Amino acid sequence: MRFSAIFLGILSPVVLAPAFANSFTDDSQVKLTARNFYFNRDYKRGDDFPAARDWAQGFILKANSGYTPGVVGFGVDILGLAGFNLLGDSVNEYAAPGLLPVDKDRKRADQYGEIRWTAKAKVQDSTLHVGTLTPMFPVLFSSPARLFQQNYRGAHLQFNEIENLKVHALYTDRVNQRDSTNYEKIRVGNPNGRFNTAAESSGLHMLGAEYKVNDQIATQIFHADLHDVYQQSFLGLKTKHDIGIGNFLSDLRLFVSEDSGDALAGDIENQHFSGIFGLNRNNHTFSLGYMQSFGDTALPTLAGTEPAVFLDSMSADFTNINEKVYHVRYDYDFKDTALNGLKFMTRYSKGVDIEIRNLPGEEFEQDALDFDLSYRIPTGKLEGLNLRARYSHYRNDMPAQGMAFRSDNETRVNIDYTWRFK
Question: Coil, strand, or helix at residue 193?
């Protein structure tokens, strides 16, 4: 963006001035993460490909400066990414799951990389970031579910002057997808032909606030407009209360969406509610959840990301037209044991009464059984090493051909190690 280049040009002489060198570097943080990622989605019914499969090695460098002194402090953040294909050309017979760039002949890149920057300014406790953004908000969510995190180009103003309140104003006009090094226009996701088309937009603006009432209650309210495609409002409430036998947990989320402006993707009209309730006692957490879509269409989300409902399913999004989802989950944290740092999760989700826009008059079902085991070494020479293995057994009765989500057994394995420098 032109104003970003101007901003960086103004910033450069300030950053380089010797008088500011100490203040600028004292609060700097540099970390390098090596990430090894194996992805295998093995399809179980007729498909053009037997599986979606990749194995890649990535390196993620984040170098964040402090701020220069003065009423307005300035700084800059640098993001460097490098990815490498570990399976070579043998992987080209499989569908691409989004770890590596793919050309028009479905061939994976042997390696790829990019450098992104973000200029930043600070007044008291409030901040402005201009350049590369990785927003993690319900209505604008940068997916971290592949080798590299999805990022956006834009500006984000965060107001932090009132205790326990954060107010956000954000504008973005381009997205850098997880398996790409190029910015492109932002589109609405269109799995299973949910809308007329995967319409592109000139940009998205967002306003929102997060308020922590106390240690037990946190609230969110957000509104986003994907120009001439759809607008979406969100209300969220999270609670945690000690009820004697343990902590009672709740997470309630409501999305209200409708088409916007020229409605380039066609009519959009959806209200989506999701809620999960859990009991945490010592190392155990048992949860029950429910989700339902109301309205004439499915819940709209941005292309390349996942809906920010409580159920972050691996193989499907469970947000179809009129879908009702029943969910049960169990977590065990091995804290305060000899295996401190180890965490286990399993869950079962069942979606019923699913309607598909292009298959009127029919109803479908889907279900998923997921397992997640992770271990982060808490101390010692290998502190910073994180191992994670995930497995999903996903099935649906939708037609195999032409569907974005198909019956599969999915395995993902991550090995991450992070070095931190001052």
Answer: helix
What is the phi/psi pair of residue 154, to 5°?
175, -155
Q: What are phi and psi of 18, to 5 degrees?
A: -60, -35
Cα–Cα separations (whole angstroms), residue 175 to 271, 311, 412? 26, 24, 25
What dihedral do alpha carbons 255, 256, 261, 267 form, nearest 10°?
100
Q: Which two tokens stand for residue 17?
A: 């001035």
CA nearest to 271, candidates 246, 253, 286: 253
Rg, the chain, Cα only: 22
Dihedral sign of CA atoms 388, 189, 206, 63 in order: positive
Q: Tell which residue, 58, 126, 113, 62, has the closest CA to residue 86.
A: 58
- What ranges in 167-234 are assigned the alpha helix state H? none
Tell whether the torsion through CA atoms of 234, 154, 77 and 384 is positive or negative: positive
Q: How far apart are CA 234 and CA 202, in angstroms?
A: 22
pLDDT by residue for the chain (422 residues), tens only, comes to 443 343 334 344 444 444 455 567 778 999 999 999 999 999 988 667 889 999 999 999 999 999 999 999 999 999 999 999 999 998 898 999 999 999 988 899 999 999 999 999 999 999 999 999 999 999 999 999 999 999 999 999 999 999 999 999 999 999 999 999 999 999 999 999 999 999 999 999 999 999 999 999 999 999 999 999 999 999 999 999 999 999 999 999 999 999 999 999 999 999 999 999 999 999 999 999 999 999 999 999 999 999 999 999 999 999 999 999 999 999 999 999 999 999 999 999 999 999 999 899 999 999 999 999 999 999 988 998 999 999 999 999 998 777 889 999 999 999 999 999 87
* Residue from 89, 105, 109, 99 nearest 54 by CA: 99
pTM (two decimals)? 0.91
